[in-house]
Known about the structure:
The protein is mainly α and 156 residues long.
Amino acid sequence: MRKKRAKKRLLTADPKFGSTLVTRFVNNLMLDGRKNTAFKVFYDAMDTISEKITEETPIQVFEKSLENVMPNVEVRSRRIGGATFQIPHPVREDRRVSLGMKWMIGFARKRNEKTMQQKLSSEILAAYKEEGAAFKKKQDTHKMAEANKAFSHFRF
């Protein structure tokens, strides 16, 4: 028999912006349990963004860029009669946020700038302008789901 589902832990809001979304993002950004370093990287990236964009606050830019990267549908493999089909499924809200954050951080790490602050700020700005690798990943995911729409009747 399977074990019980793990309970969702309540996250504390971050000290600067008072947002649990920022804390969640920093937790994904963190390596080897270095949360203070991750917060410093994030806040420095926000400072860089505030220098480049003046009409909105950096937290609004961050939330808009995250919204631009979060997918609405994804494909999941399902084996039916010896064949494996990619079946489009709508994405739960919690998973949408997780995927968006992971894509943004992953593609920021692969960028060619010198420091992580620069990489993260440029990836957030690119997502804000609806361009960049993380946004392209969302577009590709949606295209894949659209291409396999014919198999959506296999969904249960």
